[in-house]
Design goal:
74% strand, 0% helix, mainly beta
Length: 166
Amino acid sequence: VSHIYTAAISSELSKQFFLTTSFSIQTARTWVPADSTRTEPNGASVPIQFVVPPFDADVYTWLLDCDYVLKENLTFVGSFRYSAADNFDDFESLRVTFFGGFYGIGLPLGASYKQADVSLGLRWLPKENWTVEPRYGLYHYDANEAVETGDYTAHVVSFQVSSKWG
């Protein structure tokens, strides 16, 4: 089950400066019931039930987005996003009795990381119905070493040209 809740505030601080900020939480919860039967020495079937422990993977995100009009056809655009999750559950040591044996369920579950993104650019309208947008983005992902590997930092340069037709 997953739900996303967001609160946002937008403001025109001046004729040239627009600011939007938001906070979002994504709640995610997973659980897996498992049923089976066992056979008694007398041949009777006995239902047994165990449940793999549930885990949560909630993610919190903060966003700041701004546009600053430099002149009528040129706007500076920038954004900053920070996301964090800190709810890793290590069920590897959890044991259950199943079919007369003692078994580990071996499930490390959850999410635990920090992520930050910064994007800066310009939006230029050289003539009616045409837009040119050069941008630079810096993306950083910091994984929890107990959960995963794969920290990264990425630099992205993009150039977009668009036109409205009709």
